[in-house]
Amino acid sequence: MKRIAVLTSGGDAPGMNAAIRSVVRVGIAEGLEVYGVEQGYAGLIAGRFVPMTVRSVGGIIGLGGTVLGSARCPEFRTEEGRRKAIEQMQAHGIDGLVVIGGGGSQTGSLLLHRMGFPVAGVASTIDNDLYGFDLTLGVDTALNTALESLDRIRSTASSHHRAFLVEVMGRDCGYLALMTALAGGAEVVVVPEVDVDPDAVARELREAYERGKSHAIVVVAEGARYNAAAMAEHFRERRDEVGFELRMTVLGHVQRGGTPTAFDRLLGTRAGAMAVKLLVEGRHGHIAGWLEGKVQALPLEEVVGKKRPLEPDLLSLAEVLAQ
Ligand code: ATP
Q1: At what angle do helices 228-235 and 198-210 cross, to 10 degrees?
Q2: Which of 7, 107, 110 for mutating ligand 1's site (highest number of atoms within 8 Å of CB)?
Q3: Residue 134 is a catalytic residue
Q4: Taking the model in full, what pTM does it have?
Q5: Same fold across 3-138+260-303 and 140-256
Q6: Domain ranges of the chain
Q7: Are 64 and 257 in contact (CB under 8 A)?
Q8: Where does ATP bind (predicted)?
Q9: Is the pLDDT of residue 237 over 90?
Q10: What is the rounded distance in angstroms from the CA atom of residue 314 to the CA atom of residue 299?
Q11: Active-site residue among 12, 127, 140, 264?
Q12: CATH assignment of 140-256?
């Protein structure tokens, strides 16, 4: 292997830049030429390759987002799109690709691998929905960001004796919501993995109100059947059942931005380095991520297409702690 490329794809995640930096510098140290691909798979199909040097990744380790840009690319879902991507890489003499991204991006990467192109992945998404790994790149920062917002919301909720519906990201995975609720001391958590009846949520809020709580926080995952807006709408005509006056905050993209935590910088750095080694050592079609207290590689075939389960113990713990 002489020349590799690296791209970031799907939703950006804090720590992606640390991973890019690591891929570039470790790749060069391994005697490879490294190219960056702009705008994910869209850039791959369009041949947007930029030669990277040790200097071109200087000063980025602490930056949120991704200096290469990211995109969602419908064309890459087609076989023709993926063939074009491989042709572009072959035309540029690229013989290995590192894909930094989440479940969708790694599905695309696996399909390239099945077409015979050498790939390696870095498990990266704030949703933490990748099967097989304990933590993906960006989750730690997103969780800390959500918590900081929750703490701020709690102080205003308490002053006004209000209940707040706080919606966090995570797509179909309730991990971020559950951990935000646990670490933030929320009264109720609503996740997609459990079909929650909004009237049951209303009852829990009412009970909290009657117990004399000065506020109540409901953390709602964006992918839940009743997201924050749907829940607020449901409660609009039922204020008496809830007890508290109700407000809603959707945290949205603030959770994706910002300076990566020490954990995400280190995870990006170590997983990026491992991805390069996987390519160099011929362990193609693997993905690096955080598992059982260290960075490990798993075959993409084992990771892609499966749903990451939510720890049921932690759900019951959140309920017990919300007294
Ligand atoms: P995140 O969940 O953090 O947003 P992700 O990588 O899961 O990250 P997606 O939007 O699901 O984000 O996927 C990113 C890109 O990966 C898509 O725009 C598409 O180009 C490619 N992709 C996704 N699913 C597939 C698929 N089934 N086959 C081929 N390519 C895919």
Answers
A1: 70
A2: 107
A3: no
A4: 0.95
A5: yes
A6: 3-138+260-303, 140-256
A7: yes
A8: 11, 72-73
A9: no
A10: 28
A11: 127
A12: 3.40.50.460
